[in-house]
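Narrative of activities, Objective 1.

The group set out to show that a structural description can be obtained from nothing but a protein's sequence at a throughput compatible with the screening campaign. Below is one input-output pair from the validation batch, recorded exactly as produced.
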Amino acid sequence: MQPTAGLLLENVPARRLGVASAVFNTSRQIGGALAVTAFGTLLARRTNPLPGLRASLFIAAVIVIATATANVLPERRGALNS
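Output recorded for this entry:
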């Protein structure tokens, strides 16, 4: 989370840092609540939670890969332009 926050706040004008930080943290909290809801729904099967567990872990892995890619791409673009 720290690289994403640093990247976000690094590119915001100083007078808008408070607003940017608040929006970032609010969206992070909402995303966490939605993730708990979605993954909880997938795991709610009482007879066999294994398929839901596999699906939720796959979804989480896709999100982690997408987030890591999004964090690395701007840095590589900046290095290429230097």
